[in-house]
Amino acid sequence: MDRNELYRDIIADVRTLLKARTHPRRRTIALSPEAAAWLQAIPGPSTVDTASAPAPAAPEPGPATLGKAPTAAPVDGPDDREAALAEAARRVSACTKCALCETRTQTVFSDGSPWARLAFVGEAPGADEDRQGTPFVGRAGQLLTDIITKGMRIHRSEVYICNVLKCRPPGNRDPQPEEIASCEPYLREQLRLVQPEVICALGSFAARFLTGLDLPLGRLRGSWREYEGIPVRVTYHPSYLLRNPSAKKQAWEDIQEIMRRLQLPIQG
Fold it and tell me: How far apart are CA 181 and CA 175, in angstroms?
């Protein structure tokens, strides 16, 4: 077998593998940025001199990946969820359904990948989020980022992050029922468009919304729940973990269950 024939066989095997890994619902192939760059650097057999061309550099080792949005290539045609989410964010920015529109600096829609396999849903924006327009950017946000990048060893940009409420309640008070009802259609639209494989509910308000169960968080966590056919794992909100560090062990157990469901390697 000459080198060109061997090259074609390898490419055929790679294509077969990628086809097998195609997501059954969204019909996309999620690649890490390193893998995408590596594949794009490989010239076709008709343009490469395999006898003299150097092999492409292997990607440097790094954290595990769930597949970043820009490299989740559509298989059956263009995927317009990014545009649909942008339109939803525009509608949210003009929302006046409840009194929170009178006190907000700006709405806080989401952060992360529209093609994420994992979505984190929190409670409501805080002061930092209200100022920056991005969820989970304050102290609690830094802890969530550490959980994602240092604990799960994936990039924050590969998950989808949002809240039940899109506006900050004054003084960071608890969301009111009428505020949750006003924001409910937006959150449902977000999750319908993103189609995550797993949802992590952060705190009691997100947990009750997603599970439909009016139970204490301690009874909701520790087992798999469901939101419209999507597995849900309930855990403590990062702000609670900052006030109660002893609960971090239980939160890490919840995150490990999510990692097992997504088939991510667990370190140590």
Answer: 10
Best-predicted range by mean pLDDT among 8-22, 31-45, 152-166? 152-166
Q: How far is CA 46 from CA 9, 42, 172, 203, in A?
A: 14, 12, 61, 56
Angstrom distance (rounded) from CA 46 to CA 205 = 58
Distance CA 6, CA 51 (A): 12
**Radius of gyration of the chain from Cα atoms?**
21
What pairs with residue 111 in β-bridges?
A: 161
- Cβ atoms of 266 and 260 within 8 Å: the answer is yes
Residue pLDDT, tens place only, 78-126: 468 999 999 999 999 999 999 999 999 999 999 999 999 999 999 999 9
Q: Domain ranges for the chain, please list them.
A: 3-62, 81-261
Name residue, tokens 């590969």.
158
How far apart are the C-alpha atoms of 130 and 166, rounded to whole Å?
9
pTM comes to: 0.74
Q: Does domain 81-261 have CATH number 3.40.470.10?
A: yes
Most confident of 31-35, 53-57, 136-140: 136-140
Token pair, residue 187, equals: 């959150």
User: Would the pLDDT of 1 be above 50?
Assistant: yes
